[in-house]
Amino acid sequence: MFAGLRDRAAHKRDLRRAQGLRVTGDQFVAKAQWAPAEQAFREAVELRCARLGAQDPLSLEARGRRAAVLVRLGRREEAAAELRELVALCPDVLGQEHPVTGKVRIDLAALLLARNDPDGAAELALAVLRHRPAPDKLGLLAWDIKVRARGAQGRHREAADEGAALRSACAQVFGQDSVRTLKAGSDRAQSLVFLGEYGLAERECRELLDRHSSVDLLWLAVMNALVRALDGQGRHDGAQAAARAAITQQAQVTQPSGDVLITLQLGLARSLTAVGRHQEALQAVDRARAEFRRTPDARAGLAAPIATVAAQALLGGQRPQEAEVESRQAVELAEAHYAPIHYCALEATTALACAIAAAGRRTEAEQHLARCAAAWREHFGPHHPRTLATETELAALRRS
User: Fold this and answer.
1) What are phi and psi of 298, to 5 degrees?
2) Last residue of a domain, one of 262, 277, 294
3) Peptide bond connecting 135 to the previous residue in cis, omega within 30 degrees of 0
4) The CATH number of the domain where 354 resides is what?
5) Cα 146 to chain centroid, rounded
């Protein structure tokens, strides 16, 4: 009898300790202290699994929290394996509508998106939305994943239009000035940049900056879109000033995102190339490439635009052979990380065509440029700036 009482007391004590560890882990997460958070969640998982079993709802919830932290630590393979198991278990054990079921699906979807699997990410997001549609908060998170997956698939118009609807829905649930609402607006602005709607993108970026002046990751992301919007309108001095201001201000951000710093340097390089300052542009590309190499969780797909922007600067500097090397690398990377109709994929292919033309291989260049012009026209429309620029380049080549 006493042994049984001791066992029950130990059981309750372990579960109380597991709950305390979960709370401690949440506190570490709030401070972005990922390593101690992972340790706390791991111990909570071990206690709950030992006392309740690995498939108990409390164990599943603790496993999901730890998996999310593993992503932050860069242990993505481990996180993916755990999340896949949880995605398979939770619907049967907890039910389709349970918040833990939705959360592990969203976490895996976000991981798949970061690993260049937008199709898998969209499928998981849609599974959440079927059972927890907006304005449910998990439904809004899933909708955000779906919108970003559409962008990654090269479906930029859908991403922009759904982004506007998502922004409105987030405003109703979280408020006009909430981070989620503003982030939806920032993502939409980037889609508008890809679509060549630079004036609208600039207006929406400035509206976001009026609402959010704190220097943080969101502010940097909006500034990045603003740089591209200004550059697209030919306001290169303004684009350079905005890029340099954001790059300088990022030192104030507690945990800056390598992705944003990379894209800001690329935005600066683009604007410098546009005004003929090719050597300075290449220096900015070098800084972007160095940031990419030292950032373990940088989005792998960024390697393609780094090479593309380098090729564009080299072309402007009359270095076609080096530009061709960079652009071929850009095309190879884009094929690995983007849908064929994505802006970044077509931009890389166009850079290669221009490099071939600059090298004097007229017939080969004409074939490449004709395919690029047709692709820009089909997927981005006849009036998109890149469509017009590529068709102009092709016409000039044919006249030469």
Assistant:
1) -65, 145
2) 294
3) yes
4) 1.25.40.10
5) 12
Give the C-alpha distances (Å, rounded to integers) separating 17 from 56, 135, 261.
17, 35, 41
Nearest to 130 by CA among 92, 101, 108, 173: 101
Q: How far apart are CA 106 and CA 126, in angstroms?
A: 10
Residue that is written with structure tokens 């990379």 in the block: 262
pTM (2 decimals)? Answer: 0.89
- Specify the number of domains making up the chain: 2
Categorise residue 32: left if φ over 0, alpha if ψ from -120 to 50, beta otherwise: left
Q: CA 263, CA 254: separation in Å to the nearest integer?
A: 18
Which amino acid appears at position 140 of this protein? L
Mean per-residue pLDDT over the chain, rounded? 93
- Range(s) of the domain holding residue 283: 158-294
Gap between the Cα atoms of 316 and 153, Å rounded: 30
CA atoms within 13 A on the CB side of 341: 15
User: Does 66 fall in a domain?
Assistant: no
Q: Determine the Cα–Cα distance for residues 141 and 58; give it in Å rounded to an integer.
A: 22
Tens of pLDDT, residues 191-226 = 999 999 999 999 999 999 999 988 888 999 999 999
Q: Which ranges of 175-277 would DSSP assign to H, the alpha helix?
A: 179-194, 198-211, 217-232, 236-249, 258-274
Q: Are 309 and 238 part of one and the same domain?
A: no
Same domain, 289 and 307: no
